[in-house]
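Same chain as my last thread, 118 residues:
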Amino acid sequence: MSTNFVQQGHTLTVAAPANVSSGDLVVVGSLIGVAAFDALSGADVEVDTVGVFTLPKTTTDVVTQGAKLYWDSGTSKLTVTAGTTSRHLVGLATAGAGNGATVVNCRLMLTGQTGPAA
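reply #2:
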């Protein structure tokens, strides 16, 4: 291991941007993760930045396996619609989720991209 190694980065500690519950998607700048436990706004919370998580999706979206998923902060749900420049690319759907489904399995990606992404 190199002398400047800090950590694997699979779990990071961040200041909760709002009150969060365990399992909530947390967005801090371009850092995206899933809360490991409940935390009040401003308190330290550990977030998992790697893995597949079941997260809320826009009910009317038809998500296909491998589709890019973006965070709509206005609805607090994932969507397949990239928007313009404000929606963070969160990850990829690991399975399909049709119209009427309220959740989707999402593999987190460390992209930091917002809006349309090729």
